[in-house]
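SECTION: protein entry
WANTED: fold as tokens:
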Amino acid sequence: MSRKNNKVFECEKCGHIQSKKQDKEHAIIYPNIFKETLNCKSLPIYTQFNHKGFWTTIFNGEHIPSQDEKCDRNSVMIDNSSLLYVYKLAYRHLLLSMKIVEPSDIDPANLVPHVVVRKSNNDPFSKFKTIQGEHFFISEPDLSAKTDFIVIELDKKRDLHMTLIYCKGIGKKINLIEAFVNMIKLLNHRPELIQQYQSLEYFGQKEIDYWYETNNLYPDNIIIPKDYVKSVKKMMDFKVTSAGSVL
């Protein structure tokens, strides 16, 4: 390893960058498949942006797109034909499989691939129409990782960015940029996975628990089997006093 400092280690043989060395007890271990992806292409990437319309939520909580520019929503739902859509789901799949996040962490913002394109429905600088079909060149400096999230900066000047995941303290558990780079390498190594992510219904919501529970099958557990039954956690039963103290 060379270029050693307090944050990263770079392999002289393959150029693979990994996070700061930790003791074995707290070391991040990637699924075995990543032993095969070290020499695969990763960044930079060049991809097209397509969206379905504004992200709206109807009375029953269902998230649907809308072409109504007068609506009060400011984010657009990324179309599943876009690789940016795939990145969001594939990144979630990896983090769930590694137990970095739990199913309960996948709230609507983490579920729906989206990008904010305006400040309000009166915003004269709305990118709702101009971003449709636009291509973006994304390199490592365009990935911004903090303690609680990682975003892809599509265009800083126009304030266009996509959040891949938001979870309190996640940046302390794993090198988020390294995880994204490894995920891209996997998609290059196994390009058939891309279509599988694109084929999932409703942003892969019903697969969330399945991915978490069958992490040993990663990445070949994208499609949930018809006979899958979600495991039920047993509730612990305690004997307590009248004040609630556990006996």
